[in-house]
Queue: 4 jobs
Job 1
Amino acid sequence: MIKPGNFLVLHGWQNRRPPGHWQRWLADELSARGHTVRYPQLPDPDHPCLAQWISAIETDLAAMSPHQRVVIGHSLSCVAWLHLARTASAQLPVHRVLLVAPPSRDFLLAEPALASFADPPRPSPATTGSETAPLLICSDNDPYCPPDDYMEYSPAFTINLIPGEGHFDATAGYGDWPSLLRWCEDPRISVGARRVAVLPPANRVSVVDAMD
C-alpha cells in the first residue's frame, strides 16, 4: 500500500496554473490518490521577483508536514529553488526534489523581467535542498535552454535528458504525464516522455489541498 505523501508543485514564468498543464493534472491526480498537495500561485508570475518567490516557497514548505516532502518544479521555479537551496533556510532539506526544464542563464539575462533570477549558484550535492539524490528532467530541443547548459547541474543532479520534448509544456503536449505520476509514488520509477497509460483507481482519503 502506498503511503500518502506531501507534494509541493511549483510553476514557471507567466504560468497561472491553467487547466490542461501537466502540473495542474499532476496536482489533481495526486490529490485524488490520497496525497497532500500544495500548488500555490507564486507572486506576480508575469513580472516575478526572486525574493518574493523564495519567500512564498518557504511559506508553503513551512505549512507542509515534515514527513516525506517532495518538491516538483518547472521552468523558472527550478531556478528559484536553486537560489533557495543555497540558503540556510530552516525549511530545508526536503526528502526529494525533481526539477523540469530550467531556463538557461542567457535566457534569463535576455529577459528584463527575469533579471533577478539570473546567475543561480552551481549546485553541489550539499546545495540541492534534497535529502536524496535530486532529479533533473530536460530535453535536447528546449527553446529556453540548450542541452550543454544542463551540465551545470551535474554531478549534483541525476540528469534525465528526454529527446524531442521541448519545454515540457502545453505546446509540447504535456497535459498529462503518467510516468511522472508513478515516480511521485515510487522514486524507483524512471520518468520518461509523456505517453498514454492506464493507472490503477485512486483510493480517496482525506486530503488537504492548498491549490488556491
Note: The chain has five helices and seven strands.
Job 2
Amino acid sequence: MLKLKNACIVLSLLIFGLTSCSKDDSTPTSFPIEGKWQFTKDGTITNNQEVLSDYQHTLGCTKDYIEILAGNILKLHFFENNATTNCVEFIDSGTWTRNNNSFVLSFVNEPNLNTEILQLTSTTLKIKFDLSGVTDVVVFTKIP
C-alpha cells in the first residue's frame, strides 16, 4: 500500500512538472537576432511608463536600418541629406555580443552600449538601454 501511495505521489509530481513547463516561443531568447532590422519606433521609459513614437527617417531616402551579421559584425546604415547631395548613406561598423537577453553593441572610439532585449520575434526586435540617466527604447522591424 505504501509503495502504491509513493508511486501515485511521484506520478502526480511528474505529470505536474511536465504540464507546467512549456516552451514559450515569444521569449527573447527563442529567435535568432541576425538579419536586417529597420528602425520603426523610439522613445523612453519614465516612471515605468513607455512612451514611443514613430522613428523619423529622412524623407525621400532609404529608411535607416541595422544589420546584425554572423561573426558578430554590426553595421548601422543612416541616410541624410546635405547641402549638395540628397540621401547620403553613412555606415558605422562595429561588433555585437549576445547572452540571453543581454545585447552589447561595440563601435570604435565609443563606449559599449549595453542593451536589454525586451522583445524578439521573427518580425520585431525591441531593446532598451540607459544613456545619460535616461532609459531609451528602440523598436525595429525585420526587413528581407
Note: The chain has one domain: 27-143.
Job 3
Amino acid sequence: MPKIVFDDKGFTCECGMRNDYPGYVQEHWDVKLVYSCSCRRRFVLYQGKVKMVRQSLAESPVSDAFGD
C-alpha cells in the first residue's frame, strides 16, 4: 500500500492524487482540519502532519475532527 507523502504545501494521497492545501490551512496550523481527497479518503491535517481517518465524517467524534 502506498504511503501518504506530505510537505508544508500539501500531500499526495494513497491513490496518487496530489492535494495542495487551501490557503486557510497555514493560518489554522494548530487546529485539526478534516480534508477529503477526490478519491473520498478523509484525512486530518494538524501541524503539518496528515493522518487518514478510518471512520466516515458523520461517525467521527468532534474531538477527532477538530482540535481541542
Note: The beta strands are 5-7, 10-12, 18-20, 33-36, 42-46, 49-53.
Job 4
Amino acid sequence: MEKIHFNNLGQNKIIHIALIFALLCLLFGGLEIINFRNPKINKIILFLGEVSLVISLADMQGLFYKNSVNWNNKGMNIRIKSFFGTDIKFSQVNKAELQGDELVVYEKSNKKRIDLSKISQKDREKLLSIILEHIEE
C-alpha cells in the first residue's frame, strides 16, 4: 500500500521560514544593499535565494512525492497518480464519501471521482476527514 504525503500549507512553519529566507536573499543579493569587498558574494546570496525559493515552492506543490495532498482553509490539491492533480474548493463541496476504492466529492456543479486504489486505508480516511472538516455548512 502506498502512502500520501499530507501538507497543511497554513501551518507549515518550515515553508514560511524558507520563503522569508528566500525573500531576504533576493532583496539583499539583488539590490546589493551591503557592499562586500568581493562582488561575487552578492551573486551567491542571490543564487541562494533563488534556489531556496524553487525548493520551497516545489515542496509546497508536493512535487517531491508521488502522492500528495496540499490544503489550506480555502481548498486543496490532491495529487494521486497524476502530475497536476485535482483541485477542490471547500466552498463548492456539498459532501464527500468513500465508495470502495474511490473518493467521491460532490460539488455544487459536478462530481469528482479520485481513484484511491493502492492507497492505505488510514490515508484514505485522513483525506476524507480533512475534506469533511472544511466543508462549509
Note: Helices lie at 13-31, 40-60, 121-134.
